[in-house]
Specification:
alpha+beta; PH-domain like; 5 helices; 7 strands; globular
Length: 153
């Protein structure tokens, strides 16, 4: 589960007919494998790791059976959402250090006004992306939504 502040937002945002599936935030697990991070952390007396932690963990992504909810911000909160049936594609990217740390970026492409989002440094990115893919495929089937792809190059 996410932070206490995020859980309060999640309880307020999720409808009674929605099923909460999971929430995830970014991780700083890659910092322990990256010598540059350690040097920078020593030079800044650890402040760089604290800043990195806040930047990555105060962006939360919540999946329900109907929506992907994006919660951003440290002091103020911005909540946005993408209806699952509007998600067209997702992709995962991992650097070598990300692979060692079992984290990665997930790019979500949608037709929603929110547009495309990048979920940065997510733990177990392939499992998270697969769960997301299964749920947006199911949501499209329930809505009867068909994704038409352009044949033009």
């Amino acid at each position: 589960m996410g932070s206490r502040a995020n859980m309060e937002i999640i309880r307020e945002v999720i409808n009674p007919d929605e099923q909460y599936l999971w929430d995830v935030t970014g991780s700083i697990a890659d910092a322990k494998y990256n010598p540059a991070q350690w040097v920078f952390a020593v030079l800044t007396l650890g402040i760089s790791l604290i800043v990195l932690y806040f930047i990555r963990t105060f962006n939360a992504y919540v999946l329900t059976n109907q929506r992907l909810i994006i919660i951003r911000g440290i002091f103020s909160k911005q909540v946005d959402e993408i209806e699952l049936f509007r998600i067209v594609d997702s992709a995962t990217n991992q650097s070598l250090i990300d692979r060692w740390a079992n984290i990665g970026d997930i790019r979500v492409t949608s037709t929603d006004k929110t547009g495309n989002i990048l979920m940065k440094k997510i733990p177990s990115p392939y499992l998270v992306r697969d769960s997301l893919r299964q749920n947006y495929t199911l949501a499209r089937q329930k809505k009867g939504t068909v994704v038409l792809e352009s044949l033009a190059s």
